[in-house]
Fold:
Amino acid sequence: MSAPECVVRNGTWQEKTCDVFIAQGKIVDILPADPTRTYEGQECIQAQGNLLLPGLLDAHTHLREPGQEYKEDIASGLAAAARGGFSHIMCMANTNPVNDCAAVTEFQLQKAAWAKPHGPFLHPVGALSKDLAGRELAPFYELAEAGCVALSNDGLPVVDNHLFRRAMEYSTGPQLLIIDHCEDPALAADGVVNEGIISDALGLPGQPSIAESLQVARDILLASYLRIPVHLAHISTRESVERIAEAKKNGVQITAETCPHYLLWDEEMVHGYNTLAKVNPPLRTKDDVLALRQAVGQGVIDILVTDHAPHADFEKDAPFAQAPNGISGLDTALSLTWSLIQKEILSLNDLYKLWAFAPGALFNLPVNTFAPGDPADICIFDPQANWIVSDHSMASKGKNTPCMGQSLPGRVMGLIIQGHLVHSQD
Amino acid sequence: MHWAHFHLLTISDLSTEDIRTVFTVAERFAEMAQRPVKKAPTLRGKSVILFFAEPSTRTKTSFDMAAKRLSADTFSLAQSGSSLQKGENLKDTALTLQAMHPDALVIRHTSSGAAQYLAQNLSCNVINAGDGWHAHPTQALLDGFTLHQVWSSFSGKTLLILGDVAHSRVARSDVALFHKLGVNLRVCAPKTLLPRGIDNWPVQVYTDPASACADVDAIQCLRLQLERQSSGLLPSLREYAQVYGLRPSLLQAARPEVKVLHPGPMNRGVEIASGLADAGNSLILSQVSAGVAVRMALLYLFLTPTSKE
Structure:
């Protein structure tokens, strides 16, 4: 056994206090902690009894660079990822210019390597259609070769069923999974909140749940007919969950994600025209929240993502209909997930699976399962600590979260990626 | 020499023995092309109509030359400049031609099934020179004959058909012919250019050209119709050329003596790197020569009474 280059001491993994030995960026061994053991000439990182989690993987973020760096840039987005416990994040293609060619993908990867040479690592998602216009396929092989790990028209759903079919077929060549933002734009129209009680009460145009569920049904039918997998982005409705559960039972290659905000909050959150709770798809009814919680627990929904959508303060400081959609999520996701564990809606094992193991398998990215040879990506997490969400405590440029000013449970004390301590909370 | 057929509509009409017969007769006629006088009186007094309702250069010229070398008279009819352009339907055009008592009619048409339709309505021999995406049996026979001339045997050989199989009558006829001859078949294209039911064809299906090319003995490179991009099947011709275009790096995985074929007309730099079309292992011009010999053989077999015994 080669000599460990670094040791994470006194961390809690599977309810035992352990020392984790790391060499060449990989896990070498995990031994029960022994206070008499001495480490000479080895770098020690003190976990102080805190939980050891695998470095998390967020498969759905918007980092705004190139084009809208005033909202977020790759450096600040990756800083927020580190702050939130993520070793890998994927970023959507709706930048300006759109990430529909190798030049943009390579630019993003270069920026990430400059900002965070030791991680968190960035994995761009390529556009499904040129300029996200939904008319012509983007060059999938070129995007794959440049480093894209998936394809999506996120934000601008593909209406043209023929084009979407062809995209699914063509994606099998470079073997990139398609992530579909399910929304029928004609039905969603200019809806800014969930259609129903809340749109009636606030006098705002509503977005019906079927705007999502109809496209979920379309994607399931296509995936079944073509026998090609599709991944469904940020699922928010009970009808969608029911379609997905049924499809999975029938062996259709469908996977799905949702976000902590859809598991925690319902449409009531927007009362008082709270633009910080304005998000797309909109926060739904209590019944939808219950269905989603159940779906996540039962594996109908496979992974959690942040849909990190940072915006500048002045943009959210507007009448509700004019404010942009989105919640800044990287800084708070793990704490929000911890609050779901505290409420016994999720378990610690669910957390590993939903935020690391399952997305790693889905997008073919390396995650730590704490087995020898795994990447030494470790999030040191103090479940007892609380922190106040503030402009100062968030690393993202986007401070747009409904949690602003609140105290959240659990804190990332350190993040190790491939043996490098890339973030520590002092 | 036994030839029991009245029409040639698809390869599936032919037995393996029939295909061997065509090759045997074509070998004799291929020799004729080397002579100073390239004409035989065999089909003197026979008339052949070349009805090409779709643009074609090589197939039409090939049939024309084949017929004339055997001393048959040929009459050409194209879509433009014919009464079809004036709105006459196919049946009336066919019956009009029929009334002139040709001995054979060679038909090229954009509609799949057009050759069969004429065969049902005419009393002369009908030879399908390509109908829609359906069949191009004389192309398959000339491809087979081209490889027959360079290979001692078809068995154990592997042929890759690379490109737009979904919209290709050449691919359909080649698969039918080479399958009958015992050749191992592969097809490779992006999934958008593969037919829906490809898993039911007697072929191995690839979307990765590098693995598709491994250890093959011959590659038939299909023409990419440039409109496939605008119909949403491809992102760009550039990406097609970079990934699916036949190029030297792909050929390295094939057998050293690999043969390169293309039914033409080629888009140099798209489905085939220009240098490969002209390289020593390219049989593309041999295919053209083989085309004349094969079509002479077919006209001979259809129009000579002794061959029908």
Remarks:
- Chain A has one domain: 55-363.
- The two ends of chain A are 33 Å apart (CA to CA).
- The mean pLDDT of chain A is 96.
